Amino acid sequence: MRCVSWNVNGIRAVHRKERLPWDVVVDADVVCVQETKARAEQVPPEVAEPEGFASAEWFSAQKPGYSSVATFCRQAPDEVVVGMDREEFDAEGRVLTVRFGRVHIVNAYFPNSQDGGRRLGYKLAFCDAMEDFLERLRADGGETLLVGDYNIAHTEIDLARPKQNEESPGYLPEERAWMTRYLGLGYHDVFREEHPGLVDAYTWWSYRGRARENNVGWRIDYTTVSPGLRSKVKAVEIHADVDGSDHCPISIDLKRGWKNP
């Protein structure tokens, strides 16, 4: 099973560029999209319900053209959970979960803490709520795959210029400390575990200063798994060659029997 995650920075924009996720990363069984900035009724039918997918789930922010996520599945999931049952976060359309067997695939768009840490409190509260949400999903023996844009570069190796960005949103000490805490609970940052010393592996680049051309980027998009799912991971990949957004897609492949690890 291949799960692809991509912050498209506007699904209508990538559609105009003919860079829809299921067209640029082939063989995806589940496609998790962040920052769609649209409702299903605002996009053409081939985008709202793409051919070949049994399920197309959209969760949009109350504010038009803002945030929002969508998940597309080749096979219908056993369950769909919209939001985290937390109004302050669900109003921004940030989390959408599909369950197959015992595995919950959580599609998440974490808030940006913004310049000067203006939304840092909101961001950290979202992170804490995510911890609680994942624990609820696992309470009955379930496992979790949390994919999406975390808006956090965890360590120095995860961004090109760590020293210059020590006060930048996404690399603030409090955000990095939460990521350390989260992984300390037993969750696995699979890409970094598979590539512990790999540098220049980024998923986001600023539109300014030819950052992508020069690979001056950040790794802020992740595929993390709960302990019981770790042995089912076959491969993880950053698709840095795929353009169309300021982020690139990431993917994770799970072995046979992944639904009931």
What are the main properties of this structure?
single chain, 261 residues, alpha+beta, Deoxyribonuclease I, Chain A, 6-stranded mixed β-sheet, 21% helix, globular
Topology:
Elements: E1 2-7, H1 11-16, H2 21-24, E2 30-34, H3 45-48, E3 55-59, E4 69-73, E5 79-82, H4 87-90, E6 95-100, E7 103-109, H5 120-138, E8 143-149, H6 173-184, E9 188-189, H7 190-194, E10 204-205, E11 217-218, E12 221-225, E13 233-238, E14 250-254
Parallel strand pairs: 1-2, 7-8
Antiparallel strand pairs: 1-14, 2-4, 3-4, 5-6, 6-7, 8-12, 9-12, 10-11, 13-14
Helix pairs in contact: 5-6
What would you say this structure looks like, in words?
With 261 residues, this protein is α+β, with helices and mostly antiparallel strands. The protein has a single domain, classed as Deoxyribonuclease I, Chain A (4-Layer Sandwich), CATH 3.60.10.10. It contains seven helices and 14 strands. The strands form three sheets. The chain has a six-stranded mixed beta sheet with strand order 3-4-2-1-14-13. The protein has a six-stranded mixed beta sheet with strand order 5-6-7-8-12-9. The mean pLDDT is 97.
